[in-house]
Amino acid sequence: MSQVTAKFLKDYQSPKFTIENINLDVNLLGAQTRVVATSQVQRLDSAAKVLVLDGESLQLSSVKINGQAVEYIEADGKLSITVDFDQFELEIVTILDPAANTSLEGLYMSDGAYCTQCEAEGFRRITYYLDRPDVLAKFTVRIEADKAQFPYLLSNGNPIDAGELDGGRHFVCWQDPFPKPCYLFALVAGDFDLLEDKFTTRSGRDVKLQVFVDKGNLSKSQHAMASLKKAMEWDESRFGLEYDLDIYMIVAVDFFNMGAMENKGLNVFNTKYVLADKATATDVDYHGIEAVIGHEYFHNWTGNRITCRDWFQLSLKEGLTVFRDQEFSSDMGSRAVNRINAIKVIKNQQFAEDTGPMAHPIRPESVMEMNNFYTVTVYNKGAEVIRMLHTLLGEEGFQAGMRLYVERHDGHAVTCDDFVAAMEDASGVDLALFRRWYSQSGTPIVNVMDSYDANKKRYTLTLKQHTPATAEQAVKQALHIPFSIELLAADGHSLLNKVLDFVENEQEFVFDNIDQKPLVSLLQDFSAPVKLVYNFSIEHLVHLMQFATSEVARWEASVNLFSQTVWQNVAKLAAEQAMVVDPRVVDAFRAVMLATDLDAELVAEILTLPSLSALVEQVDSVDLDALTAARRYVVDTIANECEDELLAKYRQLAQEQTIGARALKNSCLILLTSTAVDIDTLVQQQYQQADNMTDSLAALQAANVGALACRQALLTDFEAQWKDTPLVMDKWFALQACFNNEQVFDAIENLKQHSAFSFENPNRVRSIIGSFAMANLAQFHRVDGRGYQLLTDWLIVLNKVNPQVAARMITPLIQFGKFDQSRQQLIKVQLQRLMDLPDLSKDLYEKVFKALA
Ligand code: TRP
Ligand code: ZN
Fold first, then answer.
1. Which of 46, 106, 733, 832 is the most exposed place for a label (fewest CB within 10 A)?
2. Do residues 742 and 749 touch, judged by C-beta distance below 8 A?
3. CA 298 to ligand 2 centroid distance, Å
4. CA-based end-to-end distance of the chain
5. Domain containing residue 380: CATH number
6. CB of residue 310 inside a 6 A radius of ligand 1
7. pLDDT for 111-164, tens place per residue?
8. What is the pTM of this model?
């Protein structure tokens, strides 16, 4: 695979040719599907004599310029044609076999329907083209297919023509009036159930809304439609942005590499983010649907109307759109709980990416395979960077920046610098230093020290920052960190709430007229994506849990209190001393269980004690076995000491039907698996009485976590009930893959043979091997290496079937730096197995190469 080379941001060159209009004629004929692409090409650089187009896995039939067949060279994913016109018509005919395309990029089949996925570089699997986001063309698309099998023929924009043809065939023509890069092209052909509705924009235009789902799923499409309408309204009221076409379509397909795709006017979604009813979807699923529907809708402005100049700028649209979807969710539901979940993604996943071989800034500087850069860094850290801008500018300044950004760049392909410049110009806030967040990778570490001078009534806070070197970038500089703090009095009242501008390597902040020694709350609401180092006492954390004004800060204090207790016990184990839990720690959690003034969803978050993987991410090196034992001990102690309170809370909430009540009840149930109560009966009762998936799945999870006697019977019952509902079977697969017992290996072997499983369906693959490798730490990291070997066996299969999914699943195998030498050795043996494959995909190659380097 040595021919794989990196591309660099610094080498960006504007296109030498562009395409202003393209007519795409797609004749869907199974393995002989024929695509005629007729493009109006413009030469932008008169010195350019050769037009070079991108293409991959294409069967080329003919190439014509101005109606004349021409000579060309087809090699290494490029089609080169010598041209001596400034303007010409290029016609390219390609033949595709969509059913054979298991990569799910380009044109492929999902459950009998044709569909496309072109981001990032999938359009080149449909035809030879200038497949880069800074080439914007107006698309006219004609689709022809068998009418009985494919009654719906969909593409971007508005339908402009349709008709019947001989032989039971028909066609539909679509025109998209907005110029777009080819990654936003989409085509779908199939038979669906259709839910229709309409939305009237605030300027009074009617938009037809359509959600297409597999036959028989109509009743599961309501929540998606309701979410879409909420998103459209919210983007108008909060951002002043209105929809721009007469029709907005969403198609749900089960074979899909990611969550969803924002193709102009024709979003294609993973069924997971569309289909829901009470019996089959959990509260978390409902929330995910609202968030992803919002996300793709918000891309219409941040991504489609204003797109990226090149793929290094991906965070321009993704960081901003994730920020927008997070704000949408926060305005629709609990702001604190949404923030907590966003913080968890950064701390548990993004920080890990920073310390691994794939570390990169939110605007990467070099890329081998673009699919590998749809990362938590680009998306979620990218959203944190936008959130910091929002904190620095305030809502008004930020919205002024957004208006200027849209005014300047509508219809163009731009850069992250263009975005920051608009924010800066509109607000007058100097963002020169802030720009480093785009170019510097890694997690800054902020050390905090404080002191109080009672005589001067002066409180002093000293902040130091440094960012450790990352795999691809050795030298780091100071960053502009908005650092939010609160000072609390001994009686709990708030003395001061402030965002500090922390811009130096070391900086002192002095607060006068502070009458008493305050207790400080630091980095409130995670005001910057940094690691905090401060020596919190137990009393201090207990005080924050009780009195911090911010609910997020209360949760954060609880995480610190729990984690600190676990790490102290890891040290005890190393010193061969008995483990202990300070009674104040237990009391703090008990107080949360007893509190009557806290939101149930927040309490549920606090009582969902930090996972093993969350704890692993807190340290540079870990003794996994000691950590597992210490965590077990602290969880068991808290649960046992609070058994009565947990049981009372569980019973009190059993009949309440709200999201918060269910979440809290179920986090109590999980904790009760640590206690002596008759949990088996409790779990079976809940499972049998449940009239919703949230409660039945929680019962199963408790049975799984506690390895209860009823576990197998419940799993069998669940399978019988849901064997024909793939998204629910995914939950069943995932549960078994997360079972912390050596039996999990035989179980996974059996699941692979299950009639509901297929290597070609990413949802199924993720539910088994993704859950195992990412959520079953104890078995995945077994000292005998069996876990690593199992994942690698799967990756070897996936490498051929679907390289993009394979490369996503490898993540836990390349983030091995924290583990002991013998585990690292076992992992490297498996990575070498992959490296030695004769046909290793580019996607996996980039990651394996960097991991072994
Ligand atoms: N742009 C999509 C989003 O953020 C994600 C995406 C990128 C994607 N590449 C993809 C989705 C490939 C599916 C397949 O919503
Ligand atoms: Zn997106």
1. 46
2. no
3. 9
4. 15
5. 1.10.390.10
6. no
7. 999 999 999 999 999 999 999 999 999 999 999 999 999 999 999 999 999 999
8. 0.99
